[in-house]
Design a protein that fits this description.
The complex is a heterodimer of chains A (about 120) and B (about 300). Chain A contains 6 helices and no strands. Chain A has helices spanning about 15-20, 25-50, 55-70, 75-90, 95-115, 120. In chain A, helix 2 packs antiparallel against helix 3 (about 55-70), helix 2 (about 25-50) packs antiparallel against helix 5 and helix 4 runs antiparallel to helix 5. Chain A is elongated. Chain B has 2 domains: about 5-140, Rossmann fold (3-Layer(aba) Sandwich), CATH 3.40.50.2300; about 150-300, Reverse transcriptase/Diguanylate cyclase domain (Alpha-Beta Plaits), CATH 3.30.70.270. Chain B is about 45% helix and about 20% strand. Chain B has a 5-stranded parallel sheet, with helices on both faces. Classes of the chains: A mainly alpha (about 120), B alpha/beta (about 300). Chains A and B meet through helix 2 and helix 3 of A and helix 1 of B.
């Protein structure tokens, strides 16, 4: 595993677990993460629109969807925030929704920082 | 005969999860088709039915459970093809599992799934699919000649005849038999007769067009269906088939036998009001005319007015 010694962000991404899930193929993982991030940005915009319109049902669905994809990639922090967002959507808790949408953005940023530690992520 | 890989349709709305599933399933030797909602899955089922399907239960639009129900109610549009379904679900309550199986799933696997368990469940499905392929093959092809059997070639003739009328195209029919086949059987025995029939069938099969259909009609009679074929083309093809059989002798019991065939045929145009039965009977008459010409001959009924009573 091409893992840098400085890496300690297990709470952000559980790398051994995701690599086991995809058979240890790091280039495939890179491809999946790129797809995830592309879709994530689109979903963030949809979430902001839904929050502005008090569309809690959409927030719940998108939260559920992000939670599933994040779980598959073992993005633990994103998975937890998405779960909290899904719950707030279900409870029509506007304040909670806005707070967790912001937390999603922060979690995304932390994930990107963390990924920089992996040599396979930098390879193009 | 090398069996082609089993085709699996994967319907999973979560793109990442779908890609991971596809990645593994491909690695295990299956041919995959990945879609992200029930609507797309249903379109694939109708246009290119897979042999196995892995449906996520929770999907927007048509969910996995509804897909199972629809599929099991659509045996007509699937023309008897059986699709082995595995339902992928986060629901593991007894009632949910029963609901899934009663909707038509053959098996289920709960999320998050274990890869080895998924592989084992797919393998269990593959065994059923391969058995289905074998039964289908036995029910479709003639054991001795590997041509379509009588039931299947007649079914195909009905379909092709309807299609020819719909598309306003001619359809050629040709009936072939081996000259002096009874004498061959009496002289060299039935095993020799079987071998000759198999070799002739193989030569004919090799020399028809890729979209023609050929089947054993009965005994040593072979029926060929030739879509979009004029009388002139039919005559050329009949002659080509005649030549391909006789050009190389067949070795039987230390003898080298030159075998010949006779062929009779006709082309039905799309205005034909004759029944399939009547067309095949006319083909039989054409074959009789070919025999009367002295064997190793072909006879095509030319420019026939294929309206009832005028043939």
């Amino acid at each position: 595993m091409n893992q840098n010694k400085e890496f300690s962000g297990q709470e952000i991404i559980d790398l051994p677990s995701v690599l086991e899930r995809i058979g240890g193929d790091e280039s495939f993982l890179r491809e999946l993460i790129k797809i995830f991030l592309g879709e994530f940005d689109l979903k963030l915009r949809q979430l902001e629109k839904a929050a502005a319109e008090d569309d809690f049902r959409s927030i719940q669905e998108i939260g559920h969807n992000i939670k599933g994809s994040a779980a598959n990639l073992s993005f633990l922090e994103l998975q937890n925030v998405a779960y909290a967002l899904e719950t707030c959507g279900r409870l029509s808790d506007k304040f909670g929704c806005l707070e967790n949408i912001n937390k999603l953005k922060t979690a995304r940023q932390k994930l990107l920082e963390q990924l920089k530690y992996f040599s396979w992520w930098k390879e193009e | 005969m090398v069996d082609s890989p089993v085709r699996i349709l994967i319907a999973e709305d979560d793109r990442i999860s779908g890609l991971i599933l596809e990645h593994h399933i491909k690695k295990w030797g299956y041919e995959t088709c990945l879609v992200h909602d029930g609507e797309q899955a249903w379109n694939i089922i109708l246009s290119q039915p897979p042999e196995m399907a892995l449906f996520d239960w929770m999907m927007p639009g048509i969910n996995g459970l509804e897909l199972c129900r629809r599929l099991r109610q659509s045996t007509d549009s699937l023309e008897g093809e059986y699709i082995y379904i595995i339902l992928l679900t986060a629901r593991d309550e007894r009632a949910d599992i029963i609901q899934g199986l009663e909707a038509g799933a053959d098996d289920y696997i709960t999320k998050p799934f274990d890869l080895l368990e998924l592989k084992a469940r797919l393998n269990a499905g593959r065994r059923i699919v391969e058995l289905h392929r074998l039964l289908k093959r036995q029910a479709t092809y003639d054991f001795l000649t590997s041509l379509l059997n009588r039931r299947t070639i007649i079914e195909q003739a009905e379909k092709e005849y309807m299609r020819a009328k719909r598309e306003k195209r001619p359809l050629g029919f040709m009936l072939i038999d081996i000259d002096d086949f009874k004498k061959i059987n009496d002289t060299f025995g039935h095993l020799a007769g079987d071998k000759i029939l198999a070799v002739v069938a193989e030569r004919l099969q090799r020399n028809i067009r890729s979209y023609d259909k050929i089947g054993r009609y009965g005994g040593d009679e072979i029926l060929v269906l030739l879509p979009n074929c004029s009388s002139q083309e039919l005559a050329l093809i009949a002659n080509r088939l005649r030549l391909c059989v006789q050009e190389e002798p067949i070795a039987i019991n230390h003898h080298s036998l030159t075998i010949s065939i006779s062929a009779g045929g006709l082309t039905a145009d799309h205005n034909s009001s004759l029944s399939l039965h009547e067309l095949i009977a006319l083909c039989d008459q054409a074959l009789y005319q070919a025999k009367k010409k002295g064997r190793n001959q072909t006879f095509i009924i030319e420019s026939i007015v294929l309206a009832k009573g005028e043939a």
